[in-house]
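Predict structure. Chain length: 233.
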Amino acid sequence: MRAAQILASAEFRNADANCIYVGCAASGPLATNQSRAFELHNLHTALSSGLTGVNKLVAVVDEGFRVTHQEFAGKTIHQTGTLPVADHGTHVASLIAGVRDGVGMHGVAPGANLHFTALNPSGASTLDITNVTLGTLSAATLGAVAQNNSWGFNVAASTLQAHLAANPSQSVAQGLNSVIANYGTSRWQAYLDALNTFENGGVVVWALSNDETMASGDVMAALPYFDTRLQGA
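Prediction complete.
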């Protein structure tokens, strides 16, 4: 009964896709059978059982966040560095842990607190790998149970695989430095080490890719394939 009430609530349903056209395009064929992600994952059953993420901390690495957004009201929010205001990070964090207060929508873990790290504190589109490394370690120290990464480079994992096959003496960090961005091998290694530290107590989640034309996942989502230390979580 309780699960059915949650399933029928407007706040639960407001997290559903609600686009008029296929792919949320500005025009085109009308969309049908839109995804109902919360229902498909049986979130209403979990919430009715009291699994709300209360007293848990979830880390989010993204372009930026509006920390004053209504979906974060009453939450403890930790942060690493400056946080530019951006819609994507706010959207993602709301789906993860938006508060359940009868207004708007709510997240998968509405009782959870949040840790925010910006991809680049200056608001630039390039990755500040040192800032993200520090944020990952900070969240791990605070006991975060998960870190979400809804970003990448649109570089296929197969590209790194081919590079390492052609350069067998190179480390994964050296390969990343070659095929993604020249931030310095030591900085890439520090980032991989930070992810390994985080996974000792939490799960690291990646978007597979933001480019549907790619034949293999984004190299960042495939990191555990290359750095086997990361296969645990």
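Summary: The two ends are 34 Å apart (CA to CA).
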